[in-house]
Amino acid sequence: MIYAFKGWTPVVHESSFVHPQAAVTGNVTIGKNVYIGPGAAIRGDWGAIIIEDGCNVQENCTIHMFPGITVVLEAAAHIGHGAVIHGARIGRNCLIGMNAVIMDNVVLEEECIVGALSFVKAGEHYARRSLVAGNPAKRIKAVSDEMITWKTEGTRLYQALPAEMAEHWQPCEPLREPAAGGTVQEADYKSWNHNKH
């Protein structure tokens, strides 16, 4: 659902996909090849939200801010399921893990990775390629070339997803039993832990 608010109408590039069960409100700008999943709440009611090209905001994420603040997701930022971004700037090609909370005035420079379930306190600033995790979060180590390559490959899947949704996604009635021919899709991308074994 796309909602105007106090004269602000969201801007969504035609190449992007916003799930109809997401809510995008007010002063929001969504760039090219962006995926917004169902249940995402992107509220540009008190300030602005800029989601640059190639980002993804997955299922049940929340993006919001205090009045007068602009939230920016720089190009290729990857926001995992259930994460909260409140008044922060997320740098280019960063990964925010599932159910992480990024508080006000946080700045993550490019290619940072924030672990799942982490809590990043207000006002924190992390330099390029910081691996951040914990509650409260702290810098654990530098993000390696191997880690950022893995992250970038995963983000490419989401960058391709809007076009795939436009071509293949459609409402349907469920089957009453599985179709013949198998129930598992092919996979050419593995979890980080899988890569370490």
From TrEMBL:
Cited Pfam families: Hexapep (PF00132)
Record SUPFAM superfamilies: Trimeric LpxA-like enzymes
Source organism of this protein record: Filimonas effusa
InterPro entries noted in UniProt: Hexapep (IPR001451), Transf_Hexapept/Carb_Anhydrase (IPR050484), Trimer_LpxA-like_sf (IPR011004)
A GO MF term: transferase activity
Parts of the chain that traverse the membrane: none
Keyword field: Transferase
The protein's name: Transferase hexapeptide repeat family protein
